[in-house]
Structure formats: C-alpha cells, structure tokens
UniProtKB/TrEMBL annotation:
It is a multi-pass membrane protein. It comes from Antarcticibacterium flavum. It comes from the Bacteria. One of its GO terms (cellular component) is cell outer membrane. PROSITE patterns: TONB_DEPENDENT_REC_3. Residues 1-22 form the signal peptide. NCBIfam families: OMP_RagA_SusC, SusC_RagA_signa. Residues 115-233 form the TonB-dependent receptor plug domain. This is TonB-dependent receptor. The lineage of its organism: Bacteria, Pseudomonadati, Bacteroidota, Flavobacteriia, Flavobacteriales.
C-alpha cells in the first residue's frame, strides 16, 4: 500500500512538472522609442524571478515565460512598463521618455552640467531649433530663439557679415563678437575680406553637423574662458553616433529667394517733371529749362526722351530671383565601445543681388572608441570649401544697389546689347560683365581627445585642437570695366591662419553621504595662433582672356605680413550641491596673452554663484501648482582681448627714402596695455508650474566694462597718430524674460510655445581727457549717453511760406534749456544726441505644433527702441538737389506758399535740406516672421513597408513678413563699408526665401 502511494505521488508530481513545461514558451519582440528608433540594452525582467535579458543592438529580445506571468521593461530615462504574457508569442513595446528622470544637460566649458542645478544664465538650442532654415549662416538660425541675444545680418549679400550681441555692446574699441567654441576648440573668427565689405567667417560651418548650441550669457558661466569671455561665449557641439544599429539620414531642399522689400523710385515722366521744376527754381524759367534739357539729352543718350522716353527699372536690374539648394547626408551608429558619425553637406545659393553667389561643401567625421573601462579616445575632424562670387561694398559705385541712383531715362544697354557706359554713375552691369571678385575659403577644424579614468570619481582629459582658416581672393577688372584706365588690373591675395589648442584637465565628481555632490574641474590650456598674409597687384594685361597676375606686364603693389599671438591659461571650477537643493559654484582662470604690454600680460578672472531650489523644501515639495522654483545669483569677471596681435608693442616698419631702404617707427608702445575687464552681476529665478507644463526664467543683470580698449589720438609732435590705451567705463543693465509652455499634450496633438523678451540699457560712464566727447561722423561717445549715439542737427520741417528747410538752433538759453527757435541755415544749428543705434528691446516668439503626421512651427523676432540713419538720403531723398533718381516721396515737395509738407522746395544744387540731420534718422522698430515650417511624415506602417524609418516632406520660409515703419529697404540692414554704427547706405535688404524639402531616414 505504501509502495502504491509513493508511486502515485511521484506520478502526480511528474505530471505537474510536465504540464508546467508544456505551458512555458519563448516570447520575443522589439523595444523602440517614440520616434520608432530601436533601443538597445533595455532590461527585460520576468517579474518575481531572477530571470531576465536585454535587448540587442536592433532592440530585439527573447525570453522564456509562462502565460499569466508579467514582463517588466526598464531603461534609463524612460518610463517603466509592465506587460502580462498572454497567448501571443510576440510583445512589442514602445517606451516613453520620463520627464521626471530626464534633466536637460548644458555644455558649460570643459564639461557639462544639469540645467536643473545650473546657477548661471545659459540658453540652449538643439539641432531641431536650427535645422531646415534656408540660410548659409548658422548665426541667422539662432535669431529670436534666445533671450538677450541679438542676431543681425549686415545686409542681403550671401556672404554678409553677421553681428551677434549678447546682452548689449560691451566694448568701444575692441571687438564685440562672442567667443565661438567648436567641440572645445576656440574658433578663428577674423574678417579677412579685402574688398571693403566684411564676410562671415562662420559660413564654413553647416547646420546639419550641429547637435546643440549653448550660449553662455552671464560672467559666471563665461568666466572659465577668462580674457576672451567678455562678449559671451557660444559653444557649438557637433553630432555624435549613438549606440544602436547604423542609421542613414538624408535631407534635401530647394528654394527661391526675393528681396524682403523694394522701394518706389521716380519713373522717367516724374523725373523730368521734378528736375525741370528744380532747375527753374534755381536758375529761372528760361535758363533753368535750357540747362536741365541739356542734362536730359546726356542722360538719355541716343534715345528720344521728349517723345518716346526710356523707362529703365534700375532696381529690377540690381535685384534678381535667388535660388538655394541644400543637401546633406549622414551615417551614424555605434556599440558599447565605438561610436561614429560621418556627414557631408552641399549648399548652393544664388543671392538676390545680381552677381552674388555662394557654393559650399562640408564633410565631417566624429569617431570615439572605448579601449577599456578606463580609457576612451577619439577624433573629430571637418573640412569645408566655400567659394563666393562677390560684389563691391555698399560705398562703391559699382555695387548693384547703387544703380537706383541712375535716372530711369538712361538706358541700361546699348542697341548692340552691351551695357551702356555713358550713365550718370558707373554702370554696375559693365563691372558684372568685365570683372569679378572671387573669394575661396578652405577650413579644417579638428580635435583629438583622450580620457582616462583613474577611478569612477576622477578622470583626466587631454585634447589637442586645430583650426586652419585659409582664404584666397582673386579680383580682375578688364579694360572695359568702370574706372579702368589700363588694359586690365588684377589683384590676388592669400591669408592662412592656424590655431593650435592644447587642453589638459582633471575632473573630480563624487557624492558623499547621499546629500553632498561635488564636481571639480582643474587644468591648463595653451593656444598658439599664426597668421600669414600676402598680396600682389598687377596691371596691363595682353587681353581680358588672361586674368591671372602672371600675365600682368607690370607689378604695381605687393604686401606681406606675418603675425601671431599666444594664450597660456590655468583654470579651475567647482560646483557643489547640498541635498540637491542648495547650489554653489566658483571658478577662476589665470590668463596670459602676448597681445598685451609686457608688464600686464597676465590677469586673473573669477566668479561666484549660488542657487536655491526652493521647490525641494518640504513646504513646497508636493505643491500641485508650483512644481519648480529656483533662485540664483552670480557675480563674475571676464575680459576682452579682441584687438590686434601687436597693439601694445612699439613697432617699426621698412620705408623707402629716395629709393634707399630704411626703418621708421609705425606704432607707439604701451607696456601697460591690458584686457578690458567686465564685471557682471546676475540675479535670476526659474519657475515651473503644473508639473512643468509652464516654465519660465527671469533675469536681471548689471554689466560694467572697465579699462575700455581705445585707440587714443596723440599730439602731432609725437610722430605717431594714436596709441591703444585702457580708458573709460561703460555699463549695460537689463532684464530678460523667457517662458515655455506646453499648451496641449495629447496622443495625436501637441502644441508648445516659447516666448522671450529682453531689455538692455547701455550707458557710457566715463571717457578719457576729463570726459571729453569723442565724435566720429554722425555718432558720439558722451558720458551719460548710449554708446555711439546719433549726434545730428535737428530737422524742423519746411517753412510753409517759402519752402526752406528749417532746423532747430538748440542753443543753450543760459538756464540749461535748449532753444527751439528755427533757422534755415544749418550752420546756425547745434548738434544734439538724437537716437540710439542699438535696440532697447529684443524678443522672439516660437510656436511648435504636431498633429497626426503633420508638424508646424513658426518664429517671430522683433526689435524696438532703435534708430537707423539713411546715409544715402542726402542723395536719394534730396528734393532734386542733384541728378540722382529720387524716392517717390519727394513728389510731395513744397510748391506754393501755404503748403504744409516735410519735403522742402526742389532746388537743383540748392542744398535745401540735404545736410546730415534728423531728417534722415528714422525709428527702425520691426517685427519679422523669421521662420515658418510645415512638414508631413508618412505613417509608420507605410514607412516600414518601404524599408525606411522616416519619410518627411516639408515647406519652410525665411523672412517672409516684416512689419515696420522704416521707409528704407530693411530695418536690419546696415552699411558694410564702415559708415558708422546704425547707418544704412545703399544696403541691400535681407532675402525672403521659400523652400521645399524632404527628410529620409533608414
């Protein structure tokens, strides 16, 4: 009996075990993220057991399980998901990002930091913020996206210089551009143009290779860059390969461009009417008509202006329809040891100005490999070649935009089709046909880096960076080109600037007792820059078919210079957080530069900052409305070393005296010359509401620049014209506000908004020579006024009795008040501060929406409280003072006693109202639709059936709408010929671009 019972029990256990194995099966599947990208390394655990596995490089997994058991999927930065095993053998999972786990990381120089614990003011832009914007310049892609950052392209030329001002202008005589750092390497950013108009050196970068742009605005953030951080720092990080299967991405777009604005000019009938009247007013009826009709005969050439007048639209000839083509491809991927990113890009832009084109090729390789748990090494290297077909600067008669000065009665071409050489001013079409100016820029940037971890909390980094900026310029003007008195003239130049950067630093990071978090970075950096320039000019070419200097019969000029500079720096930064809520930071940098006086070559720059995350306190931790609250305060010092390499040195140069060689002093020495120093205080608050559906940042700053670098005039008896000195104090103070909202968050519809607004008040505090005014053209430096304020006599309108232009005398009446009496003699009127060339307010608004497969975004950008002086107004809006064609508003000129108008009587050669005055100063406030994008992505099932990961088509527009009262071409355009801050002089408007494209990923 006992035997039988034992047998039955054994049989029963066997049956149970056999039944269990019969129910166990293999479950497989794929884990992806919200974009459909496979996730490798996801943990897949059979809940309640120790059984588990991980997904492979393609996101696939396989595990044995029994129906009714639960699988748990977890991955860092993503929400944990559980799924019960049912009858099916396949369970595919989509993991969602966990906002509570993810902390945005910003690049802070020699490392990164969580933005949540940041005590500085840093704006971060990602690749999504700057991609697919149809402009060759990456700076333009930033416009309107970051609070307190003003981005202005000088004019509508494809290579036009770009000004970026972070929290206003911090210098008078040194550069005002920020320091650009690409993957840890400070970039060469010198304008090397020789045709009188600046180029943008960062044209050589392609936006497709950029992962993020971090803008360090306050001194606490920028102090780690010491003597070069006074104007802020723009840190550009390029893309890296990510762990997982290899990915291929293609982006192609093509578009057309037109000017954002054109102006109305007199047609031939109106021109004849106005100038006949002007001549009669000046010389009398008979003499005036005889004189002006002789001028009309010359201007019209062989055409009959009396009966069948020519009506040339010179503006239409100056501008053209532009075209742009952008194409870029990239391959990226990696595994647990190696990551790679390869990319190539092509841009071809035909500008909106006749004769202006750009073509650029770029290629990049970023590779890193982990040789062991301790050692990582890699290489980033990029090459670009940019060729620009350039036009003359704004102050040259052969600049196409100056063609608007040509009277419409003058034919543009002769009967045989050649450009007309007998026009009032040089015909730019002759230059376009018989001359060229080509600039070629070749650039190599790279960094080799290695990282060794001694133990988890301590690592050592060594980086070697390289930047080569090599530019050649070739100019040829044939014998038929304007102003050419020889059989052709040629000019060729080349400039090569090399920068070597060696950085070595330790990073210590550890957590003590679960409440103390300490990060320390300390190291040194050495930067060596060499520049070599040479040029040659030749004349008398056998024919226009020979256009290189080797064919010139006579070499008339040549030049060569060799320059260089060195920086040696030691730096340290420490950040500390207590209980994840009390934040502290300190940094110091000791800089030495060869640019400064031998007694002042080293300087020390430091910063302190603190923050308090109040929302982590017990009394706010569970608040359902206020989800985040942080207070921050910082102080820091930075410097400005953006001057010539030998500004402090006493220099000598070779001269020729009676055809004998000699040397002579060319620059006075200042052994005490040193950096401008900028002290900045920043107070900020970061806010989050409704689980961070609404986030905001508010900052107030005071930024004082001391020891301003200025080229001070010397007495003539010194033998030198001027000397660089540290003189004067200037202050910027302002407030910045930024808010981000997630307006709608649904499965099939999301809508987010970013709005930023910033005010900057600029004031000159002190100047040399007991505060004496420094007047340069139409601008003035005066204590108590904004930098480079406009300084003009004040236009008072038109005398309704006789049509005279009137001006306010503005003479002190003895009690400190200025007289408001008027005079028709501009010499009796005093100049007064009349306006500011830099904006008081700047702002931007971006909206992004996703609905189904559609995505839609747009950005508005604006500036307020800024003035612009139309330097060409005394010629083009001068009530027929000279023969330049006039803007149509001059038709409302004064004609009869009692007329009320702002345009004086037309008087040929009468100088009636055509002096530099506030008549040509206007407000330049504007709001511009900077960018708009509409895209559609095919459904995942359709894309998968095509063997792709993504297929998206899109439309994008750039500078589509502009709202402004400025009557010139463009409220952003400024002269590129050194006419002074805030001056528009025949400056082309920006391009309005429409583009369509496609993104393909697989």
């Amino acid at each position: 009996m006992k035997l039988k019972l034992k047998f039955v029990l054994t049989l029963l256990v066997g049956l149970i075990v056999q039944f269990s194995y019969a129910q166990e099966k293999t479950v497989t599947g794929t884990v992806i993220d919200e974009q459909g990208i496979p996730l490798p390394g996801v943990n897949v655990i059979l809940q309640g057991t120790t059984t588990g596995t991980q997904t492979d490089f393609d996101g696939n997994y396989s595990i044995r399980a029994v129906e009714g058991q639960t699988l748990e999927f977890s991955y860092v930065g993503y929400q944990r998901i559980q799924r019960e095993v049912g009858p099916e053998d396949t369970i595919n999972i989509t993991l969602m990002e966990d906002a509570s786990q993810l902390e945005e990381v910003v690049v802070v120089g020699y490392g990164t930091q969580s933005k949540r614990k940041l005590t500085d003011n840093i704006s971060k832009l990602t690749s999504e913020d700057i991609s697919e914007i149809p402009t060759p310049s990456i700076q333009n892609a930033i416009s309107g996206k970051a609070a307190g950052v003003q981005v202005s392209q000088i004019n509508g030329k494809v290579e036009g210089g770009v000004n970026i001002r972070i929290r206003g202008v911090a210098s008078i005589g040194a550069g005002s551009e920020p320091l650009y750092v690409l993957d840890g390497v400070p970039l060469i950013n010198n304008n090397e143009s020789n045709n009188g108009a600046p180029t943008n050196p960062l044209l050589t970068l392609s936006s497709n290779e950029i992962e993020s742009i971090d803008i360090l605005k306050d001194a606490s953030a920028a102090a780690v860059y010491g003597s070069r951080g006074a104007n802020g720092v723009v840190i550009i990080t390029t893309k890296r390969g990510k762990q997982g299967k290899g990915r291929f991405a293609l982006n192609y777009s093509s578009g057309i461009s037109t000017p954002t604005n054109t102006r109305e000019w007199l047609n031939t009938e109106e021109y004849i009417e106005l100038f006949t009247e002007a001549a009669v007013n000046s010389f009398g009826e008979e003499d005036g008509r005889d004189y002006i009709e002789g001028i009309f005969d010359f201007l019209a050439g062989d055409t009959d202006w009396r009966n069948n007048p020519v009506n040339t639209d010179w503006q239409d000839l100056a501008f053209q329809t532009g075209y742009t083509t952008d194409a870029d491809v990239s391959v990226s991927g990696g595994d647990e040891k190696t990551s790679y990113f390869f990319s190539g890009a092509y841009n071809n832009t035909t500008g909106i100005i006749t004769g202006n084109e750009l073509e650029r090729f770029t290629a990049r390789t970023n590779v890193s490999h982990r040789f062991s748990d301790r050692f990582l090494a890699g290489l980033n290297i990029a090459y670009s070649r940019t060729e620009i077909d350039r036009i003359a600067n704004d102050n040259a008669f052969v600049n196409p935009v100056q063609a608007i000065a040509q009277p419409s009665m003058s034919p543009a071409y002769l009967d045989n089709g050649d450009p007309n050489p007998n026009t009032l001013y040089a015909n730019f079409l002759l230059y376009d046909k018989h001359a060229f100016y080509i600039t070629n820029i070749r650039r190599v940037t790279g960094k080799a880096f290695a990282e060794y971890s001694f133990f988890p909390s301590l690592k050592f980094n060594t980086d070697f960076g390289y930047d080569l900026y090599y530019q050649t310029e070739d100019n040829y003007e044939g014998r038929l080109a304007p102003f050419q008195s020889t059989n052709g003239q040629g000019y060729a130049s080349s400039v090569g600037t090399e920068s070597y950067v060696s950085s070595n630093y330790f990073t210590y990071s550890d957590i003590f007792g679960d409440i103390h978090n300490l990060d320390v970075v300390a190291g040194m950096e050495y930067n060596l820059t060499n520049r070599r320039f040479q040029s040659v000019t030749g004349i008398e070419f056998p024919t226009d078919d020979f256009q290189t200097i080797g064919s010139a019969a006579e070499i008339t000029a040549g030049n060569q210079t060799l320059t260089g500079n060195r920086f040696l720096s030691y730096f340290a930064r420490a950040t500390y957080s207590l209980m994840d809520r009390y934040l502290f930071k300190a940094s110091i940098r000791h800089d030495g530069s060869s640019r400064f006086g031998r007694n002042q070559q080293f300087g020390t720059f430091s910063s302190l900052a603190a923050g308090w995350i109040i929302s982590e306190e017990a009394f706010l931790r569970d608040n359902e409305t206020l989800s985040f609250l942080k207070l921050r305060a910082s102080w820091g010092q930075t410097g400005n070393a953006n001057i010539g390499d030998f500004a402090s040195r006493g220099l000598f140069g070779g001269i020729s005296y009676n055809q004998r060689p000699g040397i002579a002093p060319t620059q006075a020495e200042n052994s005490l010359l040193t950096w401008e120093s900028v002290d900045q205080m920043n107070f900020g608050v970061d806010l989050g509401f409704l689980n961070d559906r609404i986030t905001a940042e508010v900052d107030y700053y005071i930024k004082e620049s001391d020891g301003l670098l200025f080229n001070v005039p010397l007495p003539g008896t010194s033998g030198q014209p001027n000397i660089f000195r540290n003189v004067g104090v200037m202050e910027n103070r302002g407030i910045e506000f930024a808010i981000n909202t997630k307006n709608v968050v649904r499965d099939n519809f999301t809508w987010s908004t970013n709005f930023n607004l910033a005010q900057n008040e600029n004031e000159v505090i002190s100047l040399p020579n007991n505060g004496a005014d420094i007047i340069t053209g139409r601008n003035i430096l005066r204590e108590g006024e904004p930098i480079s304020a406009f300084y003009l006599i004040e236009y008072a309108g038109v005398d309704p009795q006789n049509g005279d232009a009137l001006y306010y005398t503005n003479v002190d009446d003895g009690s400190g008040n200025l007289s408001r009496e008027t005079t028709n003699n501009p010499n009796d009127a005093r100049r007064v501060v009349s306006g500011r060339p830099f904006p008081l307010w700047i702002g931007g608004l971006t909206n992004t929406m996703n609905f189904g497969g559609f995505d839609f975004s747009f950005t508005f950008q604006g500036e307020w409280g800024v003035d612009i002086y139309n330097g060409g107004g005394i010629y083009q809006s001068a009530n027929a003072d000279y023969f330049d064609n006039q803007s149509r508003d001059q038709l409302r000129r004064w004609q009869n006693p009692g007329d009320i108008t702002d345009v004086p009587q037309a008087r040929l050669f009468g100088a009636n109202g055509v002096v530099n005055s506030t008549r040509y100063l206007q407000e330049a406030d504007f709001i511009r639709l900077r960018n708009i994008t509409l895209g559609y992505s095919l459904p995942d099932q359709t894309v998968s059936s095509l063997g792709l990961e993504r297929f998206r088509v899109y439309f994008t527009g750039f500078n589509l709408l502009t709202f402004t009262d400025y009557e010139g071409y463009d409220p952003e355009a400024r002269s590129d010929a050194g006419s002074g801050p805030g001056v528009d002089f025949y400056s082309a408007p920006a391009a309005k671009t429409f583009s369509v494209g496609v993104n393909i990923n697989f």
